[in-house]
Design brief:
Proliferating Cell Nuclear Antigen, 4-stranded antiparallel β-sheet, 17 strands, 13-stranded antiparallel β-sheet, alpha+beta, about 290 residues, 2 domains, HUS1
């Protein structure tokens, strides 16, 4: 079993792991010949992350060998790995290897930096991992959700995050709703304070997914799902790596957010293996809805 690669996008990888650390720790990293996946299942406050990236968007000189179709899955403490990657900020070279220390598997980062005086500095960071068996990985499956009632491209997540941070001291639950006329609404729930934020003129993407089981007769009618504020913030914490985001609302059941990490096109495919031209990766957040009663 071998894994060796040059990390070419340290900031993106560190950002993904930092986001995952706020949801679930440990998380799983799945290395395959052409794809890299980060999985944070059964996280805090009913949030799960299923991220898929092209290997070339994060690594170069990528070499992987295993008896399982050249695929390797490891369990790692997300914050520990994110912290190790942050120490590589500004490095001229970062090499990732799967190795062992005293018989324990680990991910090793060999970091080359240059000091202000021009001297070369070699730094090694090691993070202990657990290698998953094939039988274990087969039990980790993406949740099945109903066909969403509405898909909508959200405003920049940083903008929504700023609004959510104002709401957090006022309520523990929010209602996220959208219609088929380009409107998205975030409202306070279960509080003596009444307030909401509404965005209009938003895009409804042409998705590669089945049509809703309940066609919308009134495009102005809102479909809604109630969410824990902390759960929503876990999604919004990906604002630093997000380029565009599609929110999919399954009324009364869950919200699914597809956070695209690069590029912008007219088609927004959804699902476990979502990818599109010009996009190097996507983070799929599944957030369980709350009973509004």
């Amino acid at each position: 079993m071998r894994l060796r690669a040059s990390v070419t996008n340290v900031g993106l990888l560190a950002g993904l792991l930092h986001t995952a650390a706020g949801v679930s720790s440990p998380c799983y990293l799945h290395f395959a010949p052409t794809q890299f996946r980060l999985i944070a299942p059964a996280g805090h406050d009913g949030v799960q992350i299923w991220a898929t990236l092209d290997v070339a968007s994060v690594f170069s000189d990528y070499r992987i060998e295993s008896h399982n179709q050249n695929e390797i899955t490891v369990e790692v403490v997300a914050e520990s790995f994110a912290r190790a990657l942050r120490s590589a900020a500004g490095a001229t070279e970062v090499m990732l290897r799967l190795g062992k220390r005293d018989g324990e598997p680990l991910l090793s980062l060999s970091i080359v930096m240059v000091s202000q005086t021009g001297a070369k500095l070699d730094v090694t960071q090691e993070v202990l991992v657990r290698i998953l068996r094939v039988s274990e990985m087969s039990l980790i499956t993406e949740p099945l959700c109903p066909t969403p009632d509405v898909y909508i491209v959200t405003p920049p997540l940083a903008e929504v995050k700023a609004m959510a941070e104002q709401i957090k001291p006022l309520a523990t639950h929010v209602c996220l709703s959208a219609n088929h006329n380009g409107a998205l609404r975030l409202a306070i729930v279960g509080s003596d304070v009444v307030g909401e934020a509404t965005w209009t003129g938003l895009e409804h993407p042409s998705v590669q997914a089945p049509a809703p089981s309940r066609p919308e007769a009134n495009p102005h009618a809102f479909r809604e799902v109630h969410l824990n504020v902390r759960a929503l913030q876990s999604v919004l914490n990906s604002a630093n790596v997000a380029k565009s985001t599609v929110a999919c609302l399954c009324t009364g059941y869950c919200a699914v957010f597809y956070v695209y990490l690069n590029g912008q096109t007219d088609a927004y495919p959804t699902g476990q293996h979502a990818s599109r031209e010009g996009v190097n990766g996507v983070m799929n957040f599944v957030v369980s809805g709350l009973d509004p009663t």
